[in-house]
Amino acid sequence: MTSAPLPDQPEFYLTVAALLLVIGVFGLLRRRTLIGMLISGELIFSAASLNLMAFNRFKAPDPTAGQIFVLFIMGLAAAEIAIALSIIIAVYRNYRSVKTKELSELNG
Amino acid sequence: MPSFPASQMIVGAVFLLCAATTVAGALIAALTVRIIRSVCGLVICCIGLAGLYYFLHSPFLALMEILIYVGAVCVTIVFAVMLAEPEEPVRDDKRSAAVLWGGLVFLICAAIFWGLWQLGAQQDWTAPVSRLSDGSVAAIGKALLTTYSLAFELISLALLVAIIGALAIARTGRTDPHVSEAAREFDEAKRAHSAGLTPSDLVSRQDAGAPVAKV
C-alpha cells in the first residue's frame, strides 16, 4: 500500500464505488416492486458518479470535466426519476399494483 | 502541516465515517423490506456520498448531491410511495428456489465486485503531468458556458421535455373520485370474475381511474 493518507488514495474511492454498484445490482435483482428497483438504479448511478469523480480528482488533466459530467448525470437522473415515477403512478392507476409479478400482460 | 493536534487523524476519521455512511445507506436501501426505509437508506447513502465528493475536492458537487438527491429525488419518491402504496409482497414461491436464486445473484455480484476491484485498485493508472485548471466553482462555471455550452442547453431541453412528459403521463386516467369509487368496485368484481380479457375489459380498466390516496 502507498503511504499517502486514506482520503488521497484513489483505490479507496474505487472500492467504495464498486461496492455501491454491486449493492445496486443486488437490490435491482432482489426487489419485487417498481419503486424498489428504481431506488437500486439510483445506487448504480451513484456508483458511476463516484467512479468518475475519483478519476477526475486523481488522474484527469482537466478537473472540471469530471465534475460537469457528474452534474449532467445528476440532472439526467432527476429527469429519469420524474418520468419513471409518473409511469409508475399511471401503472398503479391501471393495475392497482406496482408488483413486478402482476404486470405480466405482455408476457404471452 | 496544520498546527491543530491530531488533525490528520480527525480528518481520517471523518473520511471513514463518510465512506461507512455511504455503504451502510446503500445496504439499507437494497436490503430492507419496507419501501419507505429503503428511501431513507438512499438519503443516508447520498449524504455520505456528498461527504466523499467533498473529500474529492469538489464542494460544489457535494452541495448539488444534497440539493438534487436528498431534496428533490428522494422527496419525489416518497410522494410516489404515498400515492402507490407499494408494500413488498410476501414471498410466495418455494423456499429452496428463493435461496438458490439469492445465492446465484450473490455470486454474480461478488464476481462483479472482484473484477472491478482487480481492475480499479490493482491497476497502476498514470497520473497527469499537469493540470489545466484548478477545478474550482469559477472554473466549472466558465467551462459550462464555453466548452460545454451545447450540452448545457441540451440538458435544459431534456429537463423541460421530462417535466412535460411526466405531467402528461401522470395525468391520464384521472377521474372524479365519486365516479372512480364505483368504477373501482366494478373493476374488482370484473377482475375476480374474468379469466380472459376482451377489448371492452381493457377499455373499462383504462377508464376506471384510481382512488388516488386513501389518506
Largest sheet: number of strands, sense, barrel closure of chain B: none
Straight-line N-to-C gap of chain A: 55 Å
CATH architecture of the largest domain in chain B: Up-down Bundle
What's the CATH class label of the largest domain in chain B?
Answer: Mainly Alpha
Number of domain units of chain B: 3
Which oligomeric state applies? heterodimer
Structural class of the helices, strands and pairings of chain A? mainly alpha
The SSE string of chain A, one letter per element, is HHH
Work out the strand percent of chain B.
under 5%
Radius of gyration of chain A from the CA trace? 18 Å
Mean pLDDT of chain A: 87
CATH class of chain A: Mainly Alpha
Counted by DSSP, the helix tally of chain A is 3
Stretches of chain A where pLDDT falls below 50 for ≥5 residues?
none
The unreliable regions of chain B are: none
Shape of chain B: extended
